[in-house]
Every structure is written in structure tokens, then in C-alpha cells.
TrEMBL record:
Keywords: Coiled coil. This is Oxysterol-binding protein-like protein 1. Belongs to the OSBP family. InterPro entries: OSBP_sf, Oxysterol-bd, Oxysterol-bd_CS.
């Protein structure tokens, strides 16, 4: 995440705009220019803290707060908490987790606009309630009877195909005879130093909500940019109101933005991601494998197991005793991930006992429902950056860069005014700018905005 620099610091380094032309650049040319800028920061411990400003021709016409969200497949989010068994609910959370980065799988990484302090973004998704119900007990019963004939196979032609597919289908609008599920999202840039935004996602009909702080640290290694969660980014916290308030904490693994030298950006993931629920005492470790002997493999090896929240000392897949294992996961996260029940190593599990938890191949990023421009506030992302966006779309890059610099300088002037007055910025929609264990709470205004969005109302009258 990024936002403009404050008054107490020097202005962020910028690229000389005199060399900016209104000629359209190829993706390869953009990357070569970007690489040239990054080389200035070799050895800098945190690129996100440096806050350098890029010329507009290197940016995608997308606000940062719009880009950073995790609801690429809203039906996967709405499917969490459906099952009665704790293991199955953990599998539902894992299924959602494996859909949250469709934007990288289906599209290219991009550099959006740096967020400014107080900027906010809101949207809705409307989706079908069509995520398959997970019932692992049925798998075990069918397997004990000598087969899974009662369960529909995902593919009759592929002998290695899993017997059961629990992947979410492609997102689609509800049919006339079915009411859509509405998911509402609100995020606000709450801090400058460090750059942090708070977010809240809500699906009241299913009793599901999610919240957290987004903050990254980044380091240029010379060939790639390594991105890690910042100190205030403690993951995504999902709460299931209809399951006694169960809370799941999902932590982010390191990611690598590569392909700078090749002129083709790509995202890979490495190391560990963790998902845990203290109430059910079930935890999941996902080990991401980035590189194989000859190529990038983008695979995960995972385990779901019983753990002690008071003695949470298992951090690697191989650390988990077989006696505690409930299920294992394996497969390429950009394609299809399988799971099996029980402690048996995945390579020893028969194909008919391997089940598809997600197949992202047929999925695409779901479109957002956005408030009309006339009902957006001046500091609402799409409205705030509209001048820059329109200029980029019209390939008027010099104008876009000038507008962008004017907006950023205006924010620095606001910071100087706060410093002179001895005041600090207070978020409008969230009680916490940072901290609170990574769980930002909504203010009354934040709750009102989300409640209106749930009713399909976008007016901010009486709120701000």
C-alpha cells in the first residue's frame, strides 16, 4: 500500500516529467523504464516507505484502494460457514483463500495510484449462492463402502481426476427466481506513516464479515521485488456470526514480483500462509513452492490439523504429527488444488479419494457494482483520481502526470496544515488507524455506509 508523503519528510523522489511524452509505450518499454527507476533503490530496506512517485505512463488507471481487495470470487466468500462441521468450515475458508488472487492469475500485475490519507473506496458485489456444500463425512462414508459412486465425478475421462469437485462455479448474477446475495465493501486510507488502509467486508444475509489492515513492505533485490505484509497487516479476519462468532485469521505469505528483466511481469508466492480458528482449534498451514528444478511450479502443500491455541508451535507442514492431521492439500494454486481426508501423505492417496477444492481455470474476476459518480464524495477513490484516469485513457500522459502531482502536493499541504495546528488525522469510517490486533472496528459512520450499501443506497447525505 502507498500514499503521499507527510510534511515532516522530504517530498518523495519523482521521475523528471520533462521527458514524459504522450506517446503510448509498450508493456516491455514500460517495464524497462520502471526497472531503471527501481535500480536507484537497490539496498533500500522498504520501497513502500520511500514512497517514490511514478510518471503516469507507468501506472494502470486504477486507484490503489479499488485494486487491493480479496473478493475476486464473491460466491466463494458467501459460501463460508455453510457447513455444520468445523473441518468443513475450515475447508470453505481455504476454498475462499485460493480464489482471492484471481486478479493475478487471470490478469497482469499493475502499479495503481498511491492512496492519499483519508481517501476511501466502496462497492458491492451481487452473486449467486451457489458454492457447493462441503460434507466431508459423506466422503468418508462413501469411501468406507468401497467407492464414491454416490458422488458425482468431476471428469469421467480423466482417471486421475478427483472424484468430487467442490470448486465454486463461475460468478454470475442471480436468476429472476433467485434473490442475489449482496456483499458490501468499504476501505479507507487510515495512515500515512506507515501507509496503511483499513477494510471491512460484509454479507449480513449469510452472517459473514471480514476485516483487516492492508500494509506492505517491499524490497528490490535487483531482479525482482519481494513484497511482505507490514507490521500492522496481520491478515484477514473472517467472523461467522451464525457459528457463534467463530473467527478465522488468514495471514499473507511473501510474494515476488518478477519478470522485470524479461519485460513481462508475473507474481509468485513462497513460504507459508496460515489459517487458524481458536474456537474450533483447527489450523491450516499452506506451504507455497515457488521454483522447481527447471521452472516455476506455483504449488502448495498443505495440512489441516487440530492445534492448541494456547501452545501454537506448529509452523511447518512436517512439524504436524499424523495423529493431529484432519486433511491434506496439494496442487498448483494457479490451476487446481486437491484435498484428501486423514493423515496419509498425499502422494499415497488413491485418485478416487482426492477431491477438488478449487479449480480456478474456468473462473474470472467478478465485476464490482460501483456508486454513481454524482453520489461519490470528493475524496472517494474513483472521483478523486478521475482526472488522472481520464487523461491516461486518452493517452495524455503529460496532463495525467501534472494532475497527479497537483493532487499529491495538495495532500502534502494538508499535512503541513495539520502539523502547524498540532492536530492528527482521524479516520472517518474506522476507529483505528493502525493496531487493535490487526482488527479495525467500524465507526458509526462506517456502519451506516455499509448498511446503506446493503440496501443498494449510495447517498452519503447525513453521513459525511
Amino acid at each position: 500500500m502507498a500514499s503521499s508523503a507527510a510534511a515532516s519528510e522530504p517530498a518523495p523522489p519523482t521521475v523528471e516529467t520533462s521527458t514524459v511524452t504522450d506517446e503510448q509505450q509498450s508493456d516491455g518499454s514500460k517495464l524497462r523504464t520502471f526497472l531503471g527507476i527501481l535500480k536507484r533503490f537497490i539496498g533500500v530496506s522498504d520501497l513502500a516507505a520511500v514512497r517514490f512517485s511514478l510518471p503516469s505512463q507507468l501506472l494502470e488507471p486504477t486507484p490503489n484502494l479499488e485494486y487491493w481487495n480479496y473478493i475476486d470470487a464473491p460466491n466463494a466468500f458467501a459460501g463460508i460457514g455453510t457447513s455444520d462441521e468445523p473441518l468443513d468450515r475450515m475447508l470453505e475458508v481455504v476454498r475462499f483463500w485460493l480464489t482471492k488472487d484471481l486478479k493475478y492469475i487471470k490478469g497482469k500485475p499493475c502499479k495503481p495510484y498511491n492512496s492519499v490519507l483519508g481517501e476511501f473506496f466502496r462497492c458491492n458485489w451481487e452473486t449467486e449462492d451457489n458454492a457447493p456444500r462441503i460434507n466431508s463425512a459423506a466422503f468418508g462414508e462413501a469411501s468406507a463402502k468401497g467407492g464414491l459412486s454416490a458422488l458425482k465425478p468431476s471428469s469421467k475421462s480423466d482417471k486421475n481426476a478427483s472424484a468430487v469437485s467442490l470448486t465454486v462455479p463461475q460468478h454470475g448474477a442471480a436468476t429472476p427466481d433467485k434473490k442475489p446475495l449482496r456483499i458490501s465493501y468499504l476501505t479507507e486510507q487510515t495512515s500515512h506513516h506507515p501507509p496503511v488502509s483499513a477494510f471491512h467486508v460484509s454479507c449480513p444475509e449469510k452472517g459473514i464479515s471480514a476485516r483487516g489492515f492492508d500494509q506492505i513492505t517491499a524490497k528490490f533485490t535487483g531482479t525482482s521485488v519481494k513484497v511482505l505484509p507490514g507490521e500492522h497487516n496481520m491478515g484477514i479476519f473472517i467472523t461467522l456470526e451464525k457459528r457463534g462468532g467463530e473467527e478465522y485469521q488468514l495471514t499473507h505469505p511473501p510474494a515476488h514480483l518478477g519478470g522485470l528483466l524479461r519485460g513481462s511481469l508475473s507474481v509468485s508466492v513462497s513460504e507459508m500462509a496460515y489459517i487458524k480458528c481458536p474456537q474450533t482449534k483447527i489450523k491450516c498451514i499452506l506451504h507455497y513452492y515457488d521454483e522447481g528444478w527447471t521452472r516455476s511450479v506455483n504449488k502448495i502443500d498443505g495440512v489441516i490439523f487440530r492445534y492448541d491455541p494456547e501452545n501454537d508451535d506448529k509452523h511447518r507442514v512436517q512439524d504436524v504429527p499424523d495423529a493431529d492431521v484432519l486433511a491434506r492439500l496439494n496442487g498448483p494454486w494457479r490451476e487446481r488444488v486437491l484435498f484428501s481426508l486423514g493423515p496419509k501423505p498425499f502422494k499415497n492417496v488413491a485418485p478416487e479419494d482426492q477431491h477438488t477444492i478449487i479449480d480456478v481455470a474456468p473462473l474470472n474476476v467478478a465485476p464490482k457494482i460501483l456508486p454513481p459518480d454524482e453520489q461519490q464524495a470528493p475524496n472517494e477513490s474513483l472521483h478523486f483520481w478521475s482526472g488522472v484516469t481520464n487523461a491516461i485513457h486518452n493517452k495524455q500522459f503529460s496532463q495525467a502526470t501534472n494532475i497527479k502531482l497537483e493532487l499529491e502536493e495538495a495532500q502534502r499541504e494538508k499535512a503541513r496544515e495539520r502539523e502547524r495546528a498540532g492536530t492528527t488525522f482521524q479516520p472517518v469510517f474506522f476507529d483505528h488507524a493502525t493496531g487493535n490486533g490487526g482488527r479495525p472496528d467500524l465507526t458509526d459512520k462506517g456502519r451506516e455506509v455499509l448498511e446503506r450499501a446493503q440496501r443498494g443506497e449510495w447517498s452519503l447525505e447525513g453521513v459525511i
